[in-house]
Amino acid sequence: MPRDLANGVEKVQAARGLTPSIILRDALTLYLEAFAGSTETERRRQFSSEYLFLGIDLLIQRQFPDAHEALMAEADRRVEALYASS
User: Where are the domains of the chain?
Assistant: First the structure.
């Protein structure tokens, strides 16, 4: 383990009175949950994003119906460009 990570574990151990194995287990659990996108914070962020996107889409459909299709096409083009580059 790199020295800076070991120092961090030692600081948490001293501050919280936890064993290194508990600290590392908890850190790994948080990392794997974040990687899978299943943390409570991530679920809230995803919900908020979807809600905002849906609300904006509804407003545009109602107030600017002529622009809606062009905006959807541009969004689709940008997503394709983003994923084509990765």
Answer: 3-38, 42-84
